[in-house]
Automatic annotation (TrEMBL):
<dbReference type="InterPro" id="IPR010297">
    <property type="entry name" value="DUF900_hydrolase"/>
</dbReference>
<dbReference type="Pfam" id="PF05990">
    <property type="entry name" value="DUF900"/>
</dbReference>
<protein>
    <recommendedName>
        <fullName>Alpha/beta hydrolase</fullName>
    </recommendedName>
</protein>
<dbReference type="InterPro" id="IPR029058">
    <property type="entry name" value="AB_hydrolase_fold"/>
</dbReference>
């Protein structure tokens, strides 16, 4: 089977042709850390092996699907044989985007292609990976997430197309060296991703204006965002850039749902006055998934001297979260099975899919139960 993935990246390309590179590396783009390339990558995979991973049962759960194993397999497929095609651009790096004469933006070309897909009844989910992930692992993880989310559909029956944002995480698996390096690169990459979201904002505004003038049909599907691990720190710094260029008092509403999975950020980051206090402004709903048995959170917390992590035991003070923000404790389900990448595992992935399909938090279909009678936003997967 042939698999295709849309991507955006501020990684440096490798190979003689930047529009058809061999791969992307662990350094920032040669044009600067905020420079983004947009493109598509295609690869071949064994459909029988893919199906086996999608139907694999882990532990005693009836909700099948091992996205972790599938991501590993697809990363190997990408390494073995894949084709990368970047969207061509013609821009000047010394002039702001809004004032470029005769500019050609790769972002606009990709947004046009995404709109065509969305018009065929498909939502789009933007995915930001975490720490210690190379190009091949990023592609494998994004494609696995896409296949897992589409293995079963609920209300509406829409497809979900995953778009990867991959930043120069070094993928070297050296905890005391790579983590510090990735942390710095995640901060700079947040500014790059913010630049990409500003491009998306402008594209959607122009699309709406053109549609109103011409009477042409507008896309009626939703955009979502999923950040894993240190990818949440990328998002934290994205908000800095969005605030710098916001047109009004509030940030633009870009997403329907934002999923913060195993977030490697401070546990009070969503509170008023903190770094991500206005995250709810760019989405209709925000969901935090956490697991107290996540060893990666211990590494970040204890060995790096960070405050308690949001991905460990959730928000420090749930009562101070915005009404649009909910948190889900995954520890009971994932303990001993999949500690950090549980968003790719059947039951948790299904919970994400329920939200995308508009099924309420307390619907009988959902595996959640309310943890505290005093909090309407604190849940446990059961």
């Amino acid at each position: 089977m042939k698999l295709r993935l849309f991507y955006a990246t501020n990684r440096r390309h490798r190979g003689d042709n930047r529009w058809a590179p061999d791969e992307y590396g662990a350094e920032f783009s040669s044009d600067g850390m905020e420079n983004l390339r947009f493109g598509q990558v295609t690869l071949e995979a064994d459909s029988a092996l893919v199906e086996r991973h999608l139907k694999r049962k882990k532990g005693a759960q009836t909700d099948v699907g091992d996205g972790e194993k599938l991501a590993d397999y697809l990363a190997k497929c990408c390494l073995k044989s894949s084709t990368i095609k970047a969207y061509h651009e013609r821009i000047r790096s010394d002039i702001a985007d809004a004032h470029q004469p005769n500019a050609k933006f790769g972002s606009n070309s990709m947004f046009d292609d995404l709109r065509k897909v969305m018009l065929k009844r498909s939502d789009v989910l933007v995915y930001i990976h975490g720490f210690n992930v190379d190009w091949y692992q990023a592609v494998g993880g994004a494609l696995s997430l896409q296949l897992m989310l589409n293995r079963q559909k609920y209300q509406g029956g829409k497809d979900v197309l995953v778009v990867l944002f991959t930043w120069p995480s070094d993928g070297q698996a050296l905890p005391f060296v790579s983590y510090k390096s990735d942390r710095s690169e995640a901060k700079g990459s947040g500014y790059a991703f913010g630049r990409g979201l500003l491009k998306l904002r402008d594209f959607l505004a122009e699309l709406k204006t053109d549609g109103a003038r011409s009477g042409s049909p507008l896309c009626d599907q939703d955009l979502h965002l999923l950040c894993h691990s240190m990818g949440n720190y990328v998002l934290q710094n994205t908000l800095v850039r969005l605030r710098d260029f916001a047109n009004g008092k509030n940030l633009p509403r870009l997403f329907s749902h934002i999923f913060l999975c195993a977030p490697d950020v401070d546990d009070d980051v969503l509170e008023a006055g903190k770094e991500m206090c206005d995250l709810h402004e760019i989405a209709r709903s925000v969901t935090v998934y956490h697991n107290k048995g996540d060893m990666a959170m211990y590494v970040s917390d204890y060995t790096k001297g960070h405050p308690d992590r949001l991905g460990h035991e959730g928000a420090a003070r749930p009562a101070q979260l915005h009404r649009k923000a909910h948190q889900v404790d995954c520890a009971v389900l994932v303990g001993g099975l999949v500690e950090h990448s549980y968003y790719l595992w059947g039951p948790v992935n299904s919970d994400i899919r329920y939200s995308i399909d508009g099924i309420g938090h307390d619907d009988d279909t959902v595996r959640r139960r309310r943890l505290h009678v005093n909090y309407n936003n604190v849940w446990e997967l059961r």
